Amino acid sequence: MNAWRKSIHAKQILILLAVAPVVAGCGSISDFSLKDQEWFARPGRMFKNSSTIETPPLSVAKAVTPNDLISSDGACPGMPAPSAPADANASTEAQVPATAPVAIGHTECDVARAIGVAPDNVNVSANERGDRLVNMTWMHGPRPGAYTFTSGRLSSIERVDVPAPAKPARPAKKKHS
């Protein structure tokens, strides 16, 4: 019985010796300054390039207005017409930079402004329930794809095959004589 107590006592001492450095390290937590805590508490700081962190909260409760709907020629209020120059007389407040995120639930014009170029094709129709159904396709620009909107809000995005840019012709090599 005495040997059993010694082995238990030895195990307790070994565990205590293994845990002691870890517990002693807790005293240095005061080096973690308040400034560091504030930096880590800010959202999006560590994942700055991630569009999902930077995406503002989406309020589906907000009604879709006529200013949120794209016309059949690919124009939105406050955007230059598709054939107009980029610096046309449009409201700069309504324009969104081309780096803005695109997410399911955004309105038609929010997506068009975020992409920054006029769509190549806009098809406006109605689904079987009578809801507005819009299919917009971009074959060029920063986010090519087929975007489907139901009742003015983005409901799906599909990849499209974008033709590869033509390679410039190589000049003929000159023979050295």
Task: Kindly describe this structure.
By secondary structure, this protein is an alpha+beta fold. The protein contains four helices and four strands, in the order H-H-H-H-E-E-E-E. Strands 1-2-3-4 form a four-stranded antiparallel sheet, with no helix packed on it. Strand 3 (145-150) and strand 4 (153-158) form a beta hairpin. The radius of gyration is 30 Å and the shape is flat.
| Beta-strand content estimate | 5-15%
Mean pLDDT: 74
Query: What structural class do you assign from the helix and strand content?
Result: alpha+beta
pLDDT < 50 runs, ≥5 residues = 48-55, 84-97
Shape, per Cα inertia axes = flat
What is the element string, with H for helices and E for strands?
A: HHHHEEEE
How do the strands line up in the largest sheet?
1-2-3-4
Number-wise, the strands total 4
Q: How much helix is in the residues?
A: 10-25%
